[in-house]
Amino acid sequence: MAATEGDEGTVSLVDVLEEDEELENEASAVLGGSDAEKCSYPEGYVKRQALYACNTCTPAGGEAEAAGVCLACSYKCHEGHELFELYTKRNFRCDCGNSKFGAMECKLFAEKEKVNAENLYSHNFFGLYCTCNRPYPDPEDQVPDEMIQCVVCEDWLHGRHLGCSVPENVELQEMVCELCMKKAPFLWTYAACIAVSPVTKESKGEVKNDHEHVDEKSKGEEASTSPKDLKVNGVTGCKRSYQDTEASPSQMAECRLKVLQTSGRTREESGAVFWPCGWRSKLCSCTSCKTKTAFLLDESDTVLAYENKGKTTEQEGGGDGRDPLMSALNNLNHVQQLEIIHEYNDMKTELKDYLQRFAEEGKVVTPEDIRHFFEQQQGRKRRRADASQYYCS
Fold first, then answer.
1. Taking a C-beta distance cutoff of 8 angstroms, is the pair 326, 14 a contact?
2. Cα 23 to Cα 189: distance, rounded to the nearest angstrom
3. Contact by Cβ (8 Å): 1, 340
4. Which one of 53, 67, 79, 152 is CB 3.0 to 4.6 Å from 95, fit for a cystine?
5. Distance separating alpha carbons of residues 9 and 383, to the nearest angstrom
6. Cis peptide leading into residue 185 (ω within 30°)
7. Measured between alpha carbons, how far is 41 from 92 in angstroms, rounded to an integer?
8. What is the largest CA-CA distance in the chain?
9. Kind and range of the H or E run holding 389
């Protein structure tokens, strides 16, 4: 495959296309599960959807002004406004055009109640995140750090502000922040037995699993049966102890949480908690516990389930999934491949510059904007072709 030389080494067109495909898949995961044409308000409190907050219409000033709009309204009703991307939120009804927006009406669905009483808001709706209450990206923060979302409050927190070390392959796990753990203290019981063990660093730089506050009997059992322990991303958990408590059907029929509370397993109640895949299915679903766990018992509530839905929707509407450009490249000679690479790189640079203006002004890029860009590209191409023809004659 032909390649181009740059300051960062050789990059093939295949590499560029694969990178673009990855970015497209990420966008599809977030936006594919939401409707870009119709306001989601008639659907009521949608289980999970992509949301935005408009700083132009509802600027920061207090909890009463916080509001969120659906994907379609961000395009149709708030074009050119300064928007904060909220990623996804659960059980939310579109606020666009209600009393929080003054005289403004929703262009897609005008008949809305004054407020959506069941909506939950946070500082995210004013473009602020984490316990440090800062924007993202933060122009004053020079420390490179990833943002991780709590599955309970759905706030995004810096890894360094979680009160614990972030385990490897964190994208395969779910996290509950320390504040939410303390608001739902029963989760500490589950954390002692099924969560990823907290990781601490020794003075020599070694990493160890921290099983603090475990009684002597539990320590002895753990030492004698460690091969049975579950390893999640290389971190040893304590599924063995959890499975032992599951052994009695009569006890489990009563309340799984109560059985765990009598197991003797404890854990230091500090820092965020990372949970392995499938942890929700291990929560007790008895009548009493359902009032505590609610949405946590619903596997379809997860962001992963929503993203998979978005990807599936895109695949179902996108034909056989094969990239026609990738297929066409196999039939081109070396010179033709180089010409396409140069054309592609020129277009990519111009598109980046074009979109940068929207980012600087905090505007949403609409389909009309993209069509306008490619119309300009076609115009430039025709002018270059005409100039070339004139020169050759």
1. yes
2. 39
3. no
4. 67
5. 33
6. no
7. 9
8. 94
9. helix 367-392
pLDDT in tens, the chain (393 residues): 344 444 444 545 556 556 666 656 665 666 767 888 999 999 999 999 999 999 999 998 755 689 999 999 999 999 989 999 998 999 999 999 999 999 999 999 989 999 999 999 999 999 999 999 999 889 999 888 999 999 999 999 999 999 999 988 776 789 999 999 999 999 999 999 999 887 544 444 444 454 444 344 344 333 333 333 333 333 333 333 344 444 445 544 679 999 999 988 889 999 999 999 889 999 999 988 988 878 899 888 888 888 777 777 655 655 444 455 555 555 666 566 666 766 777 777 888 888 888 877 777 778 788 888 888 877 666 655 555 454 444
d(CA 179, CA 330): 54
Question: Regarding beta strands 231-232 and 235-236, do their DSSP bridges make them parallel or antiparallel, or are they unpaired?
Answer: antiparallel
Give CA separation, 206 vs 201, 202, 223, 237, 321, in Å.
Answer: 6, 5, 20, 18, 46
Token code pair at residue 84:
């904060």
Q: Which residues are bridge partners to 156 per DSSP?
A: 149
**Six-digit token pair at 192?**
């002692």
- Residues 382, 380: Cα–Cα separation, whole Å: 5
Look at residues 302, 266, 309, 306 and name the one whose alpha carbon lies nearest to residue 152. Answer: 302
φ and ψ of 49, to 5 deg: -155, 160
Q: How far apart are CA 379 and CA 350, in angstroms?
A: 14
Task: Give the single-character DSSP code of 148.
Answer: E
